[in-house]
Here is the input.
Amino acid sequence: MTRWPAQFVAPARGLWPVLASILLTIMPADINADTHPLRRALWVWHGDRIVQSESVTQELFRFVEAPKGDPKAKVTVLFLSCSIGTQYARSSIAKFLAEAHRSGVRVDYLCGESNYGEPGHVEAGLGQVKAVLAFNRDQTEASRFDGIQFDVEPYALPGWPKPSILSNYLAFLSACQSEILHSGQHLALGAAIPRWYDGADLHGLYRSVLDRVDYVAVMDYVREPRAFIDDARRTVEYASKTGKDVWLGAEVSELPHEKTATFYELGNAKLEQTFAAACQAFSGSKGFAGVAIEWYDTYVELRP
Here is the structure.
């Protein structure tokens, strides 16, 4: 995903309540999915090379069945970036989706550009929704996308966060919501958002986004359990009240200039401890959908 300038990364807020601090201290690191069900999603960029190769497809499905050899870490949702513009591509994707569904894996189409937040580019973004809806109409139920996720990062636009950018971005999401509603199809609408959309200067932007989508995937790019949980708390709470879902996304790519935003140096064990902490903290929250990993290629290479 696109990285944002350092000035847009909000600092972690405050300390946890005392009880939460104690829980994190005494909580075992090996909380498992049998006791605490934890759904997992995975961003998959450059998906064309995967869906168009049977061997690479099988490699992906073997991995998500038991990441790092652990079946309790099974991934059941993919956010897949791929091209659907040609008949060859559509045929390959349909086959991929059918196999994913046989394996109990949901797949959401992944796309987005920062300029979808500008009036002159709304139609380009809306065209992505129309393309997915058209694709689904031509397929059997087993070979359809389950949703569409927009990774639109308007904070990369000049002048952010002026009101016109915010209103245009929200208008774009509303247009997507309306397009799906009028199609009559069951297609989940999602948006990837940074962890700081609840900042005071953004006037509840996280709520405005959630009001227009079915779920958000929070790019919760920190590597400490307390920050990972606390920075997403308001978003999860609002989703719980409004019947929406929140995925908490962790970064595992190498980021030499943003080392505290990724688990790359800490490894998979620390990632799992953080996921366990999030599961414990949000186990009673209806809006907590699970955790997500950014992204497939770097997750495969993440050290133990």
Remarks:
- Strands lie at 40-44, 77-80, 106-111, 147-150, 188-194, 215-219, 245-251, 288-294.
- The chain has a mean pLDDT of 90.
- The longest strand covers residues 188-194.
- The two ends are 23 Å apart (CA to CA).
